[in-house]
């Protein structure tokens, strides 16, 4: 539920401006300034949001940057528009989180709530609880990436904190193994958390983006 006013998004805008690069940030439906309810969102819907913004508001080759769920969406966009993607940088990427980090960990009480009500509330360390609906999990299964090869040939940099309490850093290692391209690097920050918004974290993200953009 991060939005485009977050630390990483605003840092990257300033970073791009300083280098004379174009930059696009946006809110998914149900997030930030966008209309809609988070509880109605699905991976497919948010992928469509990203593709709409990408197709209508950018030109030429792009470096995609996605954090957490956005890392999953960035990979899906790279698969859908391979001719437009010059590189991908993910930060604490969470591909397949609906299956591996939500469904697989559901206790009996929350599974019962999902069956009975079609949703349950998930506590968040970053704000109020948010509502997880059956549609999010079921739609997520149509977009799983880590069950086989990921046919992305563009260079990919996967940045992940080893102290991330929300998405295990092994998810980025697993993603790297699945990616078909040869230019794939996993960058681990031993004391990094999920947000990776400290000054040193932002500098590392900026370096990864700049290296791909300069190509």
Summed over residues and divided by their number, the pLDDT gives a mean of 94
The ordered H/E elements are HHEHEHHEEHEHEH
Tell the overall outline: globular
Strand content: 15-25%
Structural domain count: 1
Helix fraction bin: 40-55%
Structural class: alpha/beta
**Biggest β-sheet, characterized?**
4 strands, parallel
CATH architecture: 3-Layer(aba) Sandwich
- Rg value: 17 Å
- For this structure, the CATH topology is Rossmann fold
Write out key terms for the chains shown.
four-stranded parallel sheet; globular; 215 residues; 8 helices; alpha/beta; two-stranded antiparallel ribbon; single chain
Describe this structure as you would to a colleague.
It is a single chain. The protein is of the alpha/beta class. The chain has a single domain (about 5-215), classed as Rossmann fold, CATH 3.40.50. It is about 40% helix and about 20% strand. The chain has eight helices and six strands. It has helices spanning about 5-20, 45-55, 70-80, 95-100, 110-115, 135-140, 170-180, 200-215, and strands spanning about 60-65, 85-90, 120-125, 125-135, 155-160, 185-190. The strands form two sheets. A four-stranded parallel β-sheet has the order 1-2-5-6, sandwiched between helices. Helix 2 (about 45-55) packs across helix 3 (about 70-80). The longest helix has 15 residues, at about 45-55. About 35% of the residues are buried. The model has no long low-confidence stretch (mean pLDDT about 95).
């Amino acid at each position: 539920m991060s939005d485009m006013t977050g630390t990483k998004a605003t840092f990257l805008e300033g970073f791009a401006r300083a280098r004379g690069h174009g930059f696009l940030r946006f809110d998914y439906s149900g997030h930030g300034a966008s209309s809609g309810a988070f509880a109605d969102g699905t991976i497919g819907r948010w992928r469509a949001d990203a593709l709409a913004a990408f197709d209508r508001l950018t030109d030429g080759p792009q470096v995609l940057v996605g954090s957490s769920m956005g890392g999953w969406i960035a990979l899906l966009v790279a698969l859908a528009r391979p001719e437009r993607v010059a590189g991908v940088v993910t930060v604490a990427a969470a591909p397949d989180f609906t299956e591996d980090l939500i469904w697989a960990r559901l206790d009996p009480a929350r599974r019962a709530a999902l069956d009975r009500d079609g949703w349950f509330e998930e506590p968040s360390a970053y704000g109020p609880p948010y509502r997880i609906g059956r549609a999010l999990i079921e739609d997520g299964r149509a977009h799983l990436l880590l069950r086989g090869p990921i046919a992305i040939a563009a260079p990919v940099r996967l940045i992940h904190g080893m102290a991330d309490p929300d998405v295990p850093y092994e998810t980025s290692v697993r993603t790297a193994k699945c990616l078909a391209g040869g230019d794939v690097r996993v960058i681990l920050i031993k004391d990094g958390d999920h947000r990776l918004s400290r000054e040193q974290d932002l500098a590392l993200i900026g370096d990864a983006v700049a290296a791909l953009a300069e190509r």
